Amino acid sequence: MNEPMRLVRLVSVLGVTFAPQAGLAQAPPAAVVPPHSPARAASLEPKRAQPGPGRRVTFQSDPIADGAIIAVALGSAGILEVLKTTGEIRPQQIAPNFDRNQLIALDRAAVRQKFNASSDSVSNIGLGLAGAYALVDPVLSGFRERSVQAGVVDAISYAETASLTLALTNIVKLAVRRPRPAAYREAEEHPDDPEWSNASTDSSLSFFSGHASMTAALGATATYLAFARAPGTYRPWVTLGLATLVTTVVSVERVRGGDHFPTDVLAGALAGIGVGVIVPHLHRTEDVQQRRVWVGFTPARERDQLHGGTLTLSGLL
Q1: SS3 245
Q2: At a CB cut-off of 8 Å and minimum separation 6, what does 237 contact?
Q3: Count of other CB atoms within 10 angstroms of residue 131
């Protein structure tokens, strides 16, 4: 056998490893584990959870952080709700500026239509159904998962979604102060009386729809939790279908009642979906023992000499 092609042979006998004399090998010896000795390995990489049919997605919550978020959001939303009732904040536009020709084509139909008096009641019922489901679903999760913690975490997720959506909606409403379709109609019917178009704060809180944003947010959180907790079953798809249906009905009725323009309910639904998905996603963890970001260093050795290494930065999304 040629000297350059000669390999170091390791022979294991009764758990003792013998090697040829040093200097005869042209390649570093490969480690061989004796047949009856325990495996030994050293790694700076975190242990990953092994996938399996029984592995399930879990959710975690920090009572202090989540409680603070809910308290701040509810506090801000509550103060804004009070300001909406004082009449201190007035609409931005006066009667001469109420020109439906300035609206985009999609929104003009909301002014031309005949307002439906029962639409407010229907939209309120839809919003109530979404809120009721948000109260019941955490209880059902506790029974389905056989874990009180699962129910508590789901309840916190719903509460956080609702409080953040309410605060965001009120902030945008008072910042934009867009007149409602009904305000346009009243201004056209009373062109010489600016009091009709500048009557109350509520008449200029059209953008965006709070009913649409809240219904969509709770529906999005319910759908996310259903897909995470019951993948491969019919329940997530039923939840998605019902959430979409309720949000659509509520949005349509808000437009039919003259409370919002189509763009108001579209923007509200999109904002609600965004909040409703982000909140439970931030609570999700597939392996509670695994760090989401870690740094590792793997040394590269040749025989007994260190020849650099590999620095790794890894993460889990």
Answers
A1: helix
A2: none
A3: 15
Kindly tell me the number of DSSP H helices and DSSP E strands found in the chain. Answer: 8, 6
Residue range 51-81, pLDDT digits in tens: 444 456 788 888 899 999 999 999 999 999 9
Rounded CA separation 309/190 (Å) = 80
What is the C-alpha to C-alpha distance for residues 212 and 280, in angstroms, rounded to an integer? 19
pLDDT band at 195 (very low <50, low <70, confident <90, very high): low
Q: What is the pLDDT of residues 218-238, one digit of tens each?
A: 999 999 999 999 999 999 999
Strand partners, 294: 314
| Rounded Cα–Cα distance for residues 165 and 167 (Å) | 6
C-beta of residue 153 within 8 angstroms of C-beta of residue 224: no
Task: Provide the β-strand partners of residue 11.
Answer: 18
Amino acid identity of residue 27, one-letter, is A
Sign of dihedral through CA atoms 219, 230, 286, 157? positive
